[in-house]
User: Fold ABC-2 family transporter protein from Anaerocolumna jejuensis DSM 15929.
Amino acid sequence: MLHFNPVYQKELRTTARSLRTYIIIFAFNGLLSLFGLFALYLTFEYQQNLGKNVQYSAILEIYSIITGVEFFLLMLVVPAVTAGAISGEKERQTLEILLTTRLTSGSIIRGKLLASISMMLILAFSSLPVIALVFSIGGITLRDLGEFMVLILETAIYLGSIGIFFSVLLKKSTSATVAAYGTVLLLSLGTFGGVWGIHFLTQMHLDHMAADATAVMQADIGNWMLLLFVNPIATFLSILKGQAGTGRSLADMYGRFGNLSPGLNEHWFLLSAGIQIAISILLLLLSARILNPLKGNKGKFKNNKIN
Assistant:
C-alpha cells in the first residue's frame, strides 16, 4: 500500500517528521500512564494503608480504566486528525493540483484515511507497555488484548471515515472538525439518549394505561435497542462485558429497557463492528464521489465528444 499510494506515502513521511506527532504520542501515553498508575495505587497501596485486604480481582477494574481512557482519547483524536485531511488541502489551495495528477479521488481518500489510521495504530501500539501493567498480576489474556486492538482499529476506521466525509463536504477545517465532533457526539450520547427517551415515553404510556391496575408494567422497547449498533461506546462496553465483566452498564440497560435475543447479546461486538464498517465504506464512497471533479461534467464531456 505504501508503494501504490503516493498520498499515503507523502502523509506518512510528513507525519514522521513532524514535531506535532511526537508531542501527541508523549501527551497520549503520559495521560494514559497517569491514569494507570493512579488506578494501581488506589487498588493496592491505598487499600493497604486503610488496613483493608487487597482484592486482586480489582486488576480487571484497572484494565477497564486504562482501556476506557485510551478509547476516550481515541475518540477525541481521530475526528481532529481526519477532519482537516481534505479541507486542509483546500485551504492551502493544493487540492486542485492533487486532483490534476493520475490519482483517482478514491486513491486520495484512501491515502488520507490510511495515514490517519496509521497514526492511531502508532498511539495504540505505543500504549501497550501501559496496558501491560495488568499482566504483572494477571486476569487478562493476550486474546483479550488482541480483541481490544481490533476494536481500536475498527473504531479508528469508523470515526476516521466520518472525519474524512465532512472534510470533503466542507471547505474549512474548523467547520469540518465541528461537524465531525457533533456527529460523533450524536452517535455516542445521542443514541443512548434516544433509547432512554423512547423507553421513558413508552413507560409513561403504560403507566397511564395501567393507572387503575394493581400490577406494575415494565416497558420493553425491544428492537429500538438496535440503535446502539452505531454507537462506538456501546461496542466498547460489549468488549468489557465479555472480557472483564465491568461493562455491566450495557447489560443493565438491556434488562431495564428491553429484551434482545441471546444471539444479539452474545455477538454484539461482531454485529456492531460489521455495521460500523459498512457505514464507513458508504461514507468513503460518498466522499470519493463528492471529491471527483468530473462528477458534474460528464454530460458536458459527452456533448463535446459528439460535437
About this structure: The chain has one domain: 6-295. Residues 297-307 have pLDDT under 50 and may be disordered. The CA atoms of residues 280 and 290 lie 15 Å apart.
